[in-house]
Design a protein that fits this description.
The chain is globular and about 80 Å long. 36% of the residues lie in helices and 22% in strands. By secondary structure, the chain is α/β, with parallel strands linked by helices. The chain has 3 domains: 235 residues, Glutamine Phosphoribosylpyrophosphate, subunit 1, domain 1; 182 residues, 3-Layer(aba) Sandwich (Rossmann fold), CATH 3.40.50.10490; 151 residues, Glucose-6-phosphate isomerase like protein, domain 1 (Rossmann fold, 3-Layer(aba) Sandwich), CATH 3.40.50.10490. Bound molecules: 2-deoxy-2-amino glucitol-6-phosphate.
């Protein structure tokens, strides 16, 4: 996601635009820019954050302008790819938040009609489309242009010699802040709270004409009246969309992240990576490498690949791979990294490349260092993840792994169809977990009194136990360990007792009976036991001290709903213990040192 801003009024636009963009950097920060209109349009943009851009920027005079801070989706962070984007004559400038899914076709047609493009972005087709239809009626030209566009957008359009801004919204947020002889347009409330707390929320299909003293909104050609709201939040609250912490906001964004990530790829007729080499000669095995939470995604990936592709998979901690182990010829390596900047991963990727390995990367940050080392990159669509604890980026990594391996799977058509249905239902299943927060909060309050906790799981949920333990330890500072359930009796049993609660991840698959046996053994040693289990699992209710129910999904997808329940458990336990949560002690969002 990106942040967009527009200003029209009686003050110089530049400082207002820059200050507002600074308030939107939590939405994306790999590049930014502004455009100010007077008799011509002056644009200043670069692949930097807002502060250095403001320092380097000359005075751009004018009382109408637009601005953008970017989270790259199409085209790496660069000056050329930064917004605003203009038409051929630099008479129209546009800022955009969203994804134009049919931009390739539109761009080819516009080029054949003589338009020249300067960026790799999807957005740049919009000003050229408006130019194509502009005959003096800017609003009409924007409306006609948007009829050609598929995908999501929140846009603000600025034109030279026009004392108005045109705005339009579909699937991406856009608001109008109402001032005194001035008006503001923005992706989100934090951008305008320094100037006004009077806000109109645009709805999908709205197209608005905004001047310094008038706001007209139309939908399907008819004028509509959008209600004015008064915002009572502080700027900081608003950046978290009213959630107390970024982590909770990002946990709750996960249904949308699943839709965005699958939507981006599920539309592709053919996956745009050459895993064909897996199916054909050449690849005897797959090596997946990562660190931390991404390593847990890699471990889940192992189960996915082995079930769907029936190919042996090796999963390595990147920092270990740097110092040992042979890398057989013909290895396809998959590097998973949210930030794309983790030093351990970068070094391992370079080592793999050095021995002739092919490296496919799954990354959340477009244009990051790992994307420049990998032979091919698949981007997750999680948007910027501010909280140090990885949550939505992890789920997005799983979505890419499911989609990728399903695209090349050897399972029969019926199973594949059932899995595709399961993925389509996933946002709703995740929402059910999120709606069960009260029960999880109750368990968190209980757990917060302990200093040592075990998480146990089997099969594809063993990595979920590891991830649940990592989440808890990194934000609540409780010592938590994830274990293969069957392994507990080989030593850790010595630690069980009233002071060592166990979180058991129970899935109704072939491990169910074994898990019941483990739970009975654990209870016999006096440990409190919280179970994650499917709804209506009466047996578990009798055995466990407390049950967090999760919706029933295909066993291969159970890590998604189980992990999200454990994210919430960790969050509320840390909150109960008064921990800072978003920025835990001693940790960093991107570990750029070995
Ligand atoms: C997870 O919550 C932690 N923030 C950490 O373990 C993280 O997953 C690890 O540093 C890897 O980061 P990356 O995905 O950006 O490479």
């Amino acid at each position: 996601m990106c942040g967009i801003i527009g200003y029209i009024g009686n003050k110089e636009a530049q400082s207002i635009l820059l200050s507002s963009l600074g308030r939107l950097e939590y939405r994306g920060y790999d590049s930014c820019g502004i455009a100010v209109a007077s008799s011509s349009i002056k644009v200043y943009k670069d692949a930097v954050r807002v502060e250095p851009l403001a320092k380097a920027m000359p005075q751009l005079s004018g009382t109408i302008g637009i601005g953008h801070t970017r989270w790259a989706t199409h085209g790496k962070p660069s000056q050329a790819n930064a917004h605003p984007h203009c038409d051929c004559q630099d008479k129209i400038a546009v800022v955009h938040n969203g994804i134009i899914s049919n931009f390739h076709l539109l761009k080819q047609k516009l080029i054949s009609e003589g338009h020249n493009f300067t960026s790799e972005t999807d957005t740049e087709v919009i000003p050229h489309l408006i130019e194509k239809y502009y005959d003096g009626d800017l609003e009409k030209a924007v409306e006609t242009a948007l009829h050609q566009v598929k995908g999501s957008y929140a846009i603000i359009v600025l034109a030279a010699d026009e004392t108005k801004l045109i705005v339009a919204k579909k699937d991406s947020p856009l608001i109008i802040g109402i001032g005194d002889r001035e008006n503001f347009i923005a992706s989100d409330v934090p951008a305008i709270l320094d100037y006004t707390n009077r806000v109109i929320y645009l709805e999908d299909g709205d197209i608005g004409v905004v001047t310094s003293d008038e706001i007209r909104i139309k939908k399907e050609g008819r004028e509509v009246d959008r209600k004015e709201h008064k915002i009572l939040w502080s700027v900081e609250d608003a950046q978290k969309a009213g959630y107390e912490h970024f982590m909770l906001k990002e946990i709750h964004e996960q249904p949308k992240v699943i839709r965005d990530t699958l939507g981006e790829y599920a539309q592709a007729t053919e996956p745009n990576v050459d895993l064909e080499r897996i199916r054909d000669a050449g690849i005897e095995s797959i090596l997946i490498l990562a660190c931390g939470t991404s390593y847990h995604a890699a471990l889940i990936g192992k189960y996915i690949v082995e079930e769907l592709l029936r190919i042996p998979v090796r999963v390595e901690i990147a920092s270990e791979l740097n110092y040992y182990g042979q890398i057989p010829a013909g290895t396809l390596a998959i590097a998973i990294t949210q930030s794309g900047e983790t030093a351990d991963i970068l070094r391992a990727m370079k080592r793999l490349k050095g021995v002739g390995g092919r490296v496919l990367a799954i990354i959340n940050v477009v244009g990051s260092s790992a994307s420049r080392i990998a032979d091919q990159t698949i981007y997750t669509r999680a948007g910027p993840e501010i909280s140090v604890a990885a949550t939505k980026s992890f789920i997005a990594q799983l979505m890419v792994l499911y989609w990728l391996m399903m695209s090349y799977s050897k399972v029969d058509a019926r199973r594949l169809a059932s899995m595709l249905l399961g993925l389509r239902e996933m946002p709703g299943k995740v929402q059910q977990v999120l709606d069960n927060e009260d029960k999880i909060l109750e368990c968190a309050r209980y757990l917060s009194a302990y200093e040592n906790v075990f998480f146990i799981g089997r099969g594809i949920n063993f990595p979920v136990a590891l991830e649940g333990a990592l989440k808890l330890k990194e934000i609540s500072y409780i010592h938590a360990e994830g274990y293969a359930a069957g392994e507990l009796k080989h030593g850790p049993f010595a630690l069980l007792g009233p002071d060592a609660p166990v979180i058991a991840i129970v899935t109704q698959d072939n491990t169910y009976e074994a898990m019941l046996a483990n739970i009975k053994e654990i209870k016999a040693r006096g440990s409190p036991l919280i179970a994650l289990a499917k709804e209506e699992d009466g047996t578990i209710e009798e055995l466990a001290d407390s049950v967090i129910t999760v919706p029933k999904v295909d066993a291969i997808f159970s890590p998604v709903v189980n992990t999200i329940a454990l994210q919430l458990l960790a969050y509320y336990t840390a909150k109960e213990r008064g921990c800072p949560i978003d920025f835990p002690r001693n940790l960093a969002k991107s570990v750029t040192v070995e």
